[in-house]
Amino acid sequence: MRRALVAAALLSAFLLGGCTEEQKAPPPAPYALTSEAIGRYCGMNVLEHPGPKGQIILDAQVPEPIWFSSARDALAFTMLPEEPKDIAAIYVSDMSKAPNWEKPGENNWIDARKAFYVIGSSLRGGMGAEEAVPFSTEEAARQFSVKNGGRVVAFSEVPQDYVLGPGGVDATTISPVDTEEKVEGHDHG
Length: 189
Prior knowledge:
- This protein is an alpha+beta fold.
- Helix content is 25%, strand content 20%.
- It contains five helices and seven strands, in the order αββαββββαβαα.
- The chain has helices at 2-20, 71-79, 138-148, 160-164, 176-179; strands at 54-58, 66-68, 87-93, 109-111, 116-124, 130-135, 151-154.
- The radius of gyration is 21 Å and the shape is globular.
- The chain starts with a helix and ends in a 10-residue tail after the last helix.
């Protein structure tokens, strides 16, 4: 009887242990950029704009990504309170693997949260706005900043006022009070 109780207790612990462990599925893979991609904020074909692009895949929206004419617009989506927060994956163009600024590539996507960004460079992205230029390595980002100006930051360090402030995707609806909020340590996906 005692063995049966021990066996039952072990079986229960094993089964309950499986219930408490969350199995985190890998994020969905990025989609190839095609001529069908229309920018979320500009409503135009993403390929009509120079510079890095972005795509966000929502949990509820797979298998269609939300396309962005710039990496900066993809970051803005993660910061805007009115946008969905059920983000499964955020991808941006890896500009260290881009053929050139005008054609940033169809399949050189990197996880936006792991990218290094050059902000404040002399190059302009989609719709002629300042860009947050993503790279897969800090060294590639530094080389770009030496050539084109700007500074290198990690995903979590991209200032909210840089993305949403003057020249940003939502510059027409942001009040001066909104841009004064603390930009360090903000959460954007």
